[in-house]
Amino acid sequence: MTTLTEETGGPHLQLRRILLPTDFSGCANYALPYAAAIARAVKATVICINVVEPIVPAVGYTGLAEAMPITELNEQMEDSAEREMPDVLHSDDLRGLVVEEVIAHGDAAAEIVRVAKEREADLIVISSHGRTGLGRIIFGSTAEAIVRHAHCPVLVVKPPPDDEEASEE
After folding, report:
1. Whether the Cβ atoms of residue 50 and residue 105 lie closer than 8 Å to each other
2. For residue 109, which of 34, 23, 11, 46 has the smallest C-alpha distance?
3. What domains appear along the chain, each with residue ranges and CATH number?
4. What is the dihedral of CA 154, 160, 162, 166, to 10 degrees?
5. Beta carbons of 155 and 126 less than 8 angstroms apart
6. I need a surface site. Which of 14, 22, 44, 94 has the fewest CB within 10 A?
């Protein structure tokens, strides 16, 4: 939240809540130390969010004898999020900070923007997967959608160049 300072009348940035989206990938972990360092410096709460995106069944002929167990796959993704979130919450980077967890369901970008507004986040710190070209066209950019629609500033952390190349493949 931006407030005016008494001395200068200029803007003063006050960070109380930092939203840290994660999909538990190695690439997503690059944002963690940035969010933790900022939170530690300004004594902010870190809100870790994972969005479980629904699996939508394919329409038309799939060649399978029986339908895919979509409900079961969605439940497995939820269970996986609940198993992996504690690893993030109890990481060395976040040790000593006030940390909250959110597991949401739906489109990742839309849910992150919604939760940021709902929880009154003052900053979102997210890692970019570094996709370019066809990979970006096919998968889109969650980070870009968040930057476009978030009500608060967004810090996008790029992975090191060697990891960017790996995520493009």
Report:
1. no
2. 23
3. 12-54+69-168 (3.40.50.620)
4. -30
5. yes
6. 14
